[in-house]
Amino acid sequence: MPTAPLRPPAVPPDPRPLLSPVARTWLDESAARIAARPTAIRALFPAARRRCGQAPLDEHWTTDEAVRAVLLATLPLRGQDLADEVAGLYRHGDPAEQRAILRSLPLLAASGDDPFRDLALTLIREALRGNDTSVVETALGPYAAAHLPEGEFRQAVLKCVFLEIPLARVTGLDLRADRELARMLADFAHERVAAGREVPQDVWPLVRPHRDIADTLAARARALAPTRPEAVTRALAALGAAAPLEEES
Questions:
Q1: Among candidates 185, 188, 208, 206, which has minimal Cα distance to 197?
Q2: Number of alpha carbons in the 13 Å side-chain half-sphere of residue 47
Q3: Range of the domain at 183
Q4: 81 near 117, Cβ under 8 Å?
Q5: What does pTM read for this prediction?
Q6: Between 7 and 6, the higher pLDDT residue
Q7: Cα gap 28→46, rounded to integer Å
Q8: Which of 9, 33, 181, 215 is the most buried (most CB within 10 A)?
């Protein structure tokens, strides 16, 4: 199994200590405006990066993302009203704004409202259908780890492999990786070997624990040895099944 990834916290770090006095004043005034009139967020949310910057706060959050999370948490809305407002922000937002919303899903969904829980999964699915690697990676955070159905989670992991997103960045993979995912990744690895291409190294730790799947992949790889000897040698070594190819002839 891959090393367990660092899990992004459900509550972002407070961005205020890193903000300039002008930026802190802007954030406090913006939060007050949103509390009084929720639709004010439509103009303030996109302005967060310009007004507060994008310095990293920790391994997961940047300043603008944390500021946007504060603005979202300020919304005095629940249920369908909250879902509709956040959906509009997401669909009209650029990738940075979408990442902030995806990172904030655990915080917003804590209200327990069914409409927002449904929206959260809808936004994750929309993100996973795209090809912006930063958005796809962010979508596979704590909310997806806890709530995305098994089949969709497996497909999302496979998409990460295709997009060359390191699997260590997929939250919850250490807990949710299973036999079916190993089989899917073994099929992917076989296709790569058949094409003479490299297999991403983080695929192998998910396949190897399922010895029968690994052995089947090794046998399929050996059959490709006459045409793809280098790719086959690499695959057998990664699987721990590196019998010399000449002994197989």
A1: 188
A2: 12
A3: 178-249
A4: no
A5: 0.89
A6: 7
A7: 16
A8: 181
